């Protein structure tokens, strides 16, 4: 039970800090499960999702062997960056949720930066 509570506390702390520093920028929110990784661009001012990408999609699923790998996270990162550019979004804030910034989360962020997103 303590592990879940610690995760929720980290998540709230991260979101609070993002709200303080976001200045109206779009948020790139990341969720990872044991099998997949998901990313979505959220405009908190309007309350809408602008773009989303995940390893559940057929295009991404065919390119990677496992949805819970670093290679899959890199593919999702490049895909969300492409969709962000199509939505005319360049400058974002990265919301890692309660996850630590390493492994799949870091791989997704690095791939999104390499594909042209600024954060």
- Here the CATH topology equals Nucleotidyltransferase, domain 5
- Using only C-alpha atoms, the radius of gyration works out to 14 Å
Number of domains: 1
CATH architecture: 2-Layer Sandwich
By DSSP, the count of extended strands is 4
Largest sheet: 4 strands, mixed
State mean pLDDT (0 to 100 scale). 93
CATH class: Alpha Beta
Q: What is the percentage of strand-forming residues?
A: 15-25%
Give the % helix. 40-55%
Characterize the structure shown:
The protein has a single domain, classed as Nucleotidyltransferase, domain 5, CATH 3.30.420.100. The chain is 45% helix and 21% strand. It has helices spanning 2-21, 58-63, 70-86, 104-114, and strands at residues 26-32, 37-43, 48-54, 92-95. A hairpin with a 4-residue loop joins strand 1 and strand 2. The longest helix is centred in the first third of the chain and has 20 residues, at 2-21.
Concise description?
This protein has 119 residues and is of the alpha+beta class. The chain has helices at 2-21, 58-63, 70-86, 104-114, and strands at residues 26-32, 37-43, 48-54, 92-95. 27% of the residues are buried.
What's the layout of helices and strands?
Blueprint: H1 2-21, E1 26-32, E2 37-43, E3 48-54, H2 58-63, H3 70-86, E4 92-95, H4 104-114
Which properties best describe this structure?
single chain, alpha+beta, 4-stranded mixed β-sheet
